[in-house]
Amino acid sequence: FQLILYENGAIRIQVLRGDGSQGGASTTGLENFKATRGLTYACNQSDSLHDNLAVLFAPPGGSTGEVQSSLHFQVRSAADLGVNTWLTNTATIATLQEILPRRAATLINSVDLSTSNVQVSQSEVNVGEALEYIITLRNTGLVAANQASFTLPLSNVLTPVPDSLACDSGQCTVAANLVQWSGALSPGTPVTVRISAKLTTILPDRTPVTGTLQLSDGFGQLYTIPSTFLARRSDLSASSLQIIPPYADPGATVSVALFVRNLGSLETTAEAQINVPAGLIYQPDSLVCGTGACTVEAGVVTWRGNVAPRGVIPVRFQVMAPASAHYGDLFTGTAVVKDTTYGGEYPLTATLWLARSTYLPLVLGPENQGAIKATGVTDRSFTPVAVIACTPIPASAIFGPTPLCSVRLACCHPEKRWSAHYDCHC
């Protein structure tokens, strides 16, 4: 045998070869010089010594460094355990300083249908078209789900295609838009269920249509699997009405322009009516339209025609502001665009403001904590006027990429008394 003494007070006894009785006729331990205190590992205890044995006597807090040891054993689970049962083993490691619990768990009789999914054959479906639902059922556990089942309520905007329901195994039915399946799901053997349905209800373009499948494993676990597609049709909501230019002098002629715009995926037949703004004078023979037919009668312009997907149809005519009108008068035009194939009405408005035009060769700079000052301003007759703009704006808006800033101009010409509000880029 061998004794190893460590500086921290630890003592290791190492036995190369045990005696014939394997410790039954010997004592292994420590004692003080007077034999009044001691610590015994074994005294006349059979099987306490064996070849290549090491016994460590460590003082409180002392050790000889990191030690690793592995313990292996096997267990057999009880035969009557249910599915998805967790078994947890706990090991307790006791040291002089603390007790360390360690745990390991394993899942017994697993049934897992979480990787099952529902796919639709198209992410976008036009009204009148059919799509296919593809349901793939998977069991990644170890135990068969012999009583598995699902229900899939199809949206009421869909109509199942006759004789389109099919399943690899089990029993599948469809009645009143409710798809049902029941059967066994063995581990590693997927089951596929298919059904086609037609979009038969007209919805606003890009309306999400969602279906939710409820899948049961037969043991109390329920899985919810959603699926969604977008219902498509024509979409005239981006149509617009404009008066060009929106500002004019009395007696000026301007254009009224309607743009019938289809952002949808289907061609449609549309109708539009534009009311000539009250107080403005329609200019004869000025009506033109890109395609379709357009007429004017009793102050109402009417257009009818087809609009292709992502197509724009312009309708234009001219009106004149009366010479007797006054600066500051406001005229409003209205229009209604109707989708006569798939439904929907879209009211539109545009305005004309009679306003004095003034040329403003401005030099703008920051002054007084972000206010701006304008110099060198002339009116249309190029008569110099004294103008100061005093609308506070952030200094950063003057020199960086900016939105519009508001500038209030006041005329100080002795023979003119007016003020106006202009929008300019700073």
List keywords for this structure.
426 residues, six-stranded mixed β-sheet, disordered C terminus, single chain, mainly beta, 1% helix
Written description of the protein model:
This protein is an all-beta fold and 426 residues long. It is built from one helix and 35 strands. The chain has one helix at 396-399, and strands at 2-5, 11-15, 27-31, 38-43, 53-57, 85-94, 99-108, 117-120, 124-126, 130-137, 145-153, 158-160, 166-167, 171-175, 178-185, 191-199, 207-216, 222-232, 240-244, 247-248, 253-261, 268-275, 281-282, 288-289, 293-297, 300-307, 312-320, 330-339, 345-354, 363-367, 371-375, 377-378, 384-385, 404-410, 419-425. The strands form ten sheets. A six-stranded mixed beta sheet has the order 9-18-17-11-15-14, with no helix packed on it. A hairpin with a 5-residue loop joins strand 17 (207-216) and strand 18. The chain is elongated and about 130 Å long. Mean pLDDT is 84; it is low at 364-426.
Task: Give the topology.
Elements: E1 2-5, E2 11-15, E3 27-31, E4 38-43, E5 53-57, E6 85-94, E7 99-108, E8 117-120, E9 124-126, E10 130-137, E11 145-153, E12 158-160, E13 166-167, E14 171-175, E15 178-185, E16 191-199, E17 207-216, E18 222-232, E19 240-244, E20 247-248, E21 253-261, E22 268-275, E23 281-282, E24 288-289, E25 293-297, E26 300-307, E27 312-320, E28 330-339, E29 345-354, E30 363-367, E31 371-375, E32 377-378, E33 384-385, H1 396-399, E34 404-410, E35 419-425
Parallel strand pairs: 9-18, 20-29
Antiparallel strand pairs: 1-2, 2-5, 3-4, 6-7, 8-10, 10-16, 11-15, 11-17, 12-16, 13-16, 14-15, 17-18, 19-21, 21-27, 22-26, 22-28, 23-27, 24-27, 25-26, 28-29, 30-31, 32-33, 34-35
